[in-house]
Structure formats: C-alpha cells, structure tokens
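Before we proceed, please read the two lines closing this message. Report back on whether the structure tokens fit the sequence:
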Amino acid sequence: MGIGVEKTTLWQLVSEDYDANGRDWTRPGFRALAVYRFGVWRMSIRIPIIRKLASFFYRIGYRRCRNIYGIELPYTAKLGRRVVIEHQGGIVFHGATSIGDGTIIRQGCTFGIRSLERLDEAPKIGRNVNIGAGAVIMGNVHVGGGASIGANAVVLHDVPPGGLAIGIPAKIVPQRKTTNSRRQTM
C-alpha cells in the first residue's frame, strides 16, 4: 500500500507534509494532517496522564478541523507520507481507510463503508493516486498506485494501478498521457 510511516518521527512526518503541501502552514489540509499525525503519535505515549493531556489537545484539533475546515480525519485511519489534501470542505475518512504515499485528495471526497455489518471494510488507496473533487469510494475497494479517480465518481469496485475511474457508478476507461500525470486536474 505504500504506507511507510512506522520508522519516522512525528516531526519528520509533519515536515514532509509541510513540504508536500506547498510549505504553507495555513492550508487547512496541512493543518488536518498535522492534527492527524499528532493523534497517531499521542497513542504511543506510555505515561497515562501525559497521554490524557495529549488526547485532550488532539480532540480540540480534530474537532476544529472537522467543524471549521470540514475535514474529518480520525487518527485510526492509515495515511502514508506526503499526502496532500488539496482543498477543504466535505472530506470524510472512515477510521479504517488506508491512503498511500503521495496521494492527492480534493474537496468533497468520502472514503467510507458500504454496510454497517462490515465496519472494517473501508477503501485501500495505493501510492500517488489522484482523487478528483466529490469522489466517493465505498467499501472494501482497492485503488492501485498511480490511478486517477474522476470528479464526482462513485467507486464501488477495485481500480487497477494506473487506471482512470469515472462516472456513477465508476467505470475504468483508458487514461490519456500527460506530462505531469500526478498533478493533473480533474
């Protein structure tokens, strides 16, 4: 999946996110990622009183990102390195979602479950995936590395590496060649 965050420190991850997000600490996407990284890190604190204090600050940051920026990113999700949340508003990650390194996410995206009987079956997104505005990826879906998800696509089935999924429900179509496919706009 490309989620290599195990051997890095909180500060290294936040620094990488800062660089990937245009070195702009005011961007809501960067702030949501920083709060997320802090939330994951605080779970490694072994002293209960310090963990509770860190959890208090995490909850404040989490609620601020959710309520003000519209980015709901719980610490239980698994995000890789250098993820970019390009725009704010209406972005929801299920707690079991997995996002690979270098993925770009735009406004209005939902990564969720399809059934209340299967709460752990959330999307698994590979490395360097380009996700268009308003995309919905539901259930135990695997999106391969380098794939693109079109704006407003509803993805209910796997997308192969390098594939392009568009439509409702999403269908895989041939992808056009671009000089910089990672940053193409949807």
